[in-house]
């Protein structure tokens, strides 16, 4: 992996000087605005959008629909926050409709994701059911198209 890509994945960003030149601001103005955005919890961080196949990402991703029992005083919040705290969980959303939480997870392989769901997630008190869907291919990620038009499709890699 290139050193630039490694730094980007680890959360490195443009320097305040680079941002200042782009925005026509001084370093101090940029630093002040960034600090204010962080304090207000508007800016939580930023990450690059990487093409999973081109990047050599061998991880398995899954989407899990979770039905939970709301608590009397806290509703869905306490359990959703607990689920969000797992390292395997990339994102967790409260949903309307047929299930309560939509959870995105990542693991080294299908077995790791399945073990997380069956041993840790589904056994939590308050979790009524889970439905796991493995992501096979990404076509668009955070607004960026990943597949080129009229390109030869490559079959997604699925391993047990």
Topology:
Elements: H1 3-9, H2 16-23, H3 27-39, E1 60-68, H4 77-84, E2 89-94, E3 101-107, H5 110-121, E4 127-134, E5 140-141, E6 144-145
Antiparallel strand pairs: 1-3, 1-4, 2-3, 5-6
**Poorly predicted ranges:** none
Q: What is the name of the CATH class of the largest domain?
A: Alpha Beta
Major sheet details: 4 strands, antiparallel
CATH superfamily of the largest domain: Lrp/AsnC effector binding domain/regulation of amino acid metabolism (RAM) domain
Structural class: alpha+beta
Query: How many distinct helices?
Result: 5
Shape descriptor reads flat
Mean pLDDT: 84
CATH architecture of the largest domain: 2-Layer Sandwich
Spell out the helices and strands N to C. Answer: HHHEHEEHEEE
Q: Compute the number of strand runs.
A: 6
CATH fold field value of the largest domain: Alpha-Beta Plaits
Beta-strand residue percentage: 15-25%
Instruction: Please give the alpha-carbon distance between the first and last residues.
Output: 26 Å
């Amino acid at each position: 992996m290139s050193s630039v890509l490694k730094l980007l994945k680890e959360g490195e960003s443009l320097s305040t000087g680079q941002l200042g030149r782009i925005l026509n601001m001084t370093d101090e103005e940029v630093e002040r605005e960034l600090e204010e955005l962080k304090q207000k919890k508007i800016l939580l961080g930023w990450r690059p959008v990487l093409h999973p196949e081109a990047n050599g990402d061998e991880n398995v991703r899954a989407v899990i629909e979770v039905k939970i029992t709301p608590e009397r005083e806290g509703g869905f919040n306490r359990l959703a926050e607990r689920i969000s705290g797992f390292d395997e969980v990339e994102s967790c959303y409260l949903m309307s409709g047929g299930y309560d939480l939509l959870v995105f997870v990542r693991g080294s392989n299908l077995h790791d994701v399945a073990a997380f769901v069956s041993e840790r997630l589904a056994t939590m008190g308050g979790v009524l059911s889970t439905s796991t869907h493995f992501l096979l291919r990404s076509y668009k990620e955070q607004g960026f198209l990943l597949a080129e038009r009229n390109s030869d499709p490559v079959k997604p890699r699925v391993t047990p």
